[in-house]
Amino acid sequence: MKRSDSATSKDLVLLCARAAIEKKANHSLIYEVGKLGAFTDFFLITSGMNERQVQAISDEIDRFAKENGLNAPRIEGYDEGRWVLIDFGSVVIHVFHDTIREFYDLETLWSDAPRLRIPEEYYTTRSGSPAASLASQ
Q: What letters, b where the CB count within 10 A reaches 16 and e where it falls short, cover 41-55?
């Protein structure tokens, strides 16, 4: 996915948010940081209650990417399960352990960035996988 293709980046970040929510990620937020001169178009910040859930969220996002023929993202911090960084280039995902997220408080750092609303149905329907959503677009 190219950084200049913001519609594609937007679709990717929303679908990654859905993948995270499928694994019961907490308080998922999307920031449109590209307009502020950041190195990427979007940040997805989300969290899990423990290391195992952080890894499960990361696994689901990685699985989604592979199933949809996307280039494999760069992933850092997976083994510790405290703060996993998943980098697709145009979209960067931070999957935090709840306590680590509170400590680093990226939300305050990027508070000037516009937020992208995650559709309500991502939270209310847990049937249908993110991959199925991509195929229907």
A: bbbbbbbbeeeebbb
Count of H-run helices and E-run strands, the chain: 6, 6
Residues present in the chain in total: 137
* Prediction pTM value: 0.84
pLDDT digit of tens for each residue in the chain (137 aa)?
333 444 589 999 999 999 999 999 999 999 999 988 878 999 999 999 999 999 999 999 999 888 888 888 899 999 999 999 999 999 999 999 999 999 999 999 999 999 999 998 988 755 455 544 443 33
CA angle 108, 15, 134 (to 5 degrees): 165
Give the C-alpha separation, 94 to 16, whole Å.
11
DSSP-assigned letters across all residues of 67-78: HTTPPPPEEEST
User: Can you list the domains of the chain with their CATH numbers?
Assistant: 6-123 (3.30.460.10)
Q: 10 Å Cβ neighbour count for 70?
A: 16
